[in-house]
Amino acid sequence: MEGYLKKSIFNDNIKVLRTIKEVRAEVNELKKRNKVIGLVPTMGALHDGHFELVKRSIEQCDYTIATIFVNPIQFGPNEDFSSYPRQEEKDIDNLDKLRCDAVFVPTIEELFPDNISNPHEILTVVSVKKLTEGLCGKFRPGHFDGMSTEVLKTFMIVMPDIAYFGEKDYQQLMIVKQMVRDLNLPICIEAVPTVREADGLAISSRNAYLTGEQRLIAPKLYTQLLDVSRQLSEKGIKCLPVLEKYEESLLKNGFDRIEYIAIVDKDKLTPVEYVENEARLLAAVWIGDTRLIDNVPIIPE
Ligand code: AMP
Fold first, then answer.
1. What digits encode the pLDDT tens for the residues 216-234?
2. What is the mean pLDDT of residues 23-50?
3. Structure pTM?
4. CA gyration radius for the chain?
5. CA–CA gap between residue 189 and residue 169 (Å, rounded)
6. Geometric angle at alpha carbon 293, from 163 and 224, rounded to 5°
7. What confidence tens digit (pLDDT) does each residue in 149-199 have?
8. Is residue 8 scored above 60 in pLDDT?
């Protein structure tokens, strides 16, 4: 472990930036040299899904900055903020192996100096309307305000040209895109398709919570979503009865609770009754104490 620490702290390659001042100094130099900056915001516990975003940024940009910050203001009071997996040294090492240029790893005090004891009491919040109301927003009140506020803060610190987000968190992606449009931020948002395990399960830091038995159930979410998507790609079929059938089917297949399964307009996230244009099918389900989300497109024939 000591060797591990040494390698990461005295790393020759990746720059580990811990303060806003350090990031701004680095970014100023890059901007003077007209370098294209790519940003990959993450909460750490990095896996192949995150690495895909980093690889995409390295391909497209001159300089890639990843962030690792478990954002307290996007977790509800009964959610897993304190138990969320944290493995900073390993993450930095993996980013270094990918040849990521820098990683911003702020403390809570660094990002919320006025509200260290309760960052939820931050006075300035950016809130995207409508898109945050349904789907995950309905079950995680305040989550998306916390997310968009922290993403905006990160944007203002890093000032990237391109920021990379995964389709795995489809609602989050649409909210960030909307925020960028509405606030005229000079940032291009790049969507990266969901990276999956060999059996189709969307890779997630929270998959680590699953027991061996639950892990065998989990990929059925994706296979069932693909079934629904296939059925509804035929035009003229009413969505609701199909969704109801699959809700039952998910429960029969071992999921303990269905939070939602919904078909929405792919951009506005409003409910769709019949699929006429490309739509998005999204679901959030529980296995024991673990919440899984996934989504797939529905492309009409
Ligand atoms: P998180 O650390 O969970 O906040 O995720 C950071 C970024 O990685 C977000 O833009 C996620 O959508 C993206 N991401 C997480 N898992 C995956 C995955 N399996 N495939 C693609 N992107 C992902």
1. 999 999 999 999 999 999 9
2. 98
3. 0.95
4. 20
5. 14
6. 125
7. 999 999 999 999 999 999 999 999 999 999 999 999 999 999 999 999 999
8. no
pLDDT in tens, 44-87: 999 999 999 999 999 999 999 999 999 999 999 999 999 999 99
- Structure-token match 């409910």, residue found: 271
Closest CA to 3 of 105, 93, 104: 93
- Cα–Cα nearest to 165, from 92, 155, 157: 155
Amino acid 66 reads A
Cα(235)–Cα(274) distance, rounded to whole angstroms? 7
Name every protein residue with a CB atom under 6 angstroms from any ligand 1 atom: 42-43, 49-50, 52-53, 165-166, 168-169, 192, 194-195, 202-205
Q: How many CB atoms lie within 10 A of CB 65?
A: 30
The pLDDT value given to residue 235: 86
Ligand 1 pocket test: pick from 48, 53, 98 the residue with the most ligand atoms within 8 Å of its Cβ.
53
| CA 37/CA 65 separation, integer angstroms | 7
Written as one letter, the residue type at 301 is E
Contact by Cβ (8 Å): 225, 283? yes
- CA 32 – CA 213 distance, rounded (Å): 54
For residue 168, how far is its CA from the centre of ligand 1 (angstroms)?
6
- CB-neighbour burial class of residue 191 (10 A; exposed 0-12, middle 13-18, buried 19+): middle
47 catalytic, yes or no? no
The three-class DSSP label of residue 37 is strand
